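Re: beginner question about structure tokens

> Can someone show what the tokenized structure looks like for a real chain? I only ever see the sequence side.

Sure, here's an example I had lying around. Input first:
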Amino acid sequence: MMNESPEPQVSIDTLIKRIESISKTLAEGSSSLESSIDQYEEGVRLAKECLRRLGEAEQRVTQLRDALESDSNEPETPDSELFRID
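And the corresponding structure tokens:
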């Protein structure tokens, strides 16, 4: 089993589809014990990667929301001040 994270270009949707595929295969019970364990490990690794990416996305959304809120708390500059020529 590889301990590396999936390549960044693999979408989270692709990761989730792979987890679903692994889950279906394991539920069927047709794989050997060793193969089932390998697939389970892969599923856990992929699930951790999904959670990591979702955490990063949540952080980005929080930062954007905070930036928007701080921008909206600043006093507005009237348009006449923006284009004033001295």
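Each token stands for a local structural state, so reading them left to right follows the chain. The domain at 12-68 is CATH 1.10.287 (Helix Hairpins).
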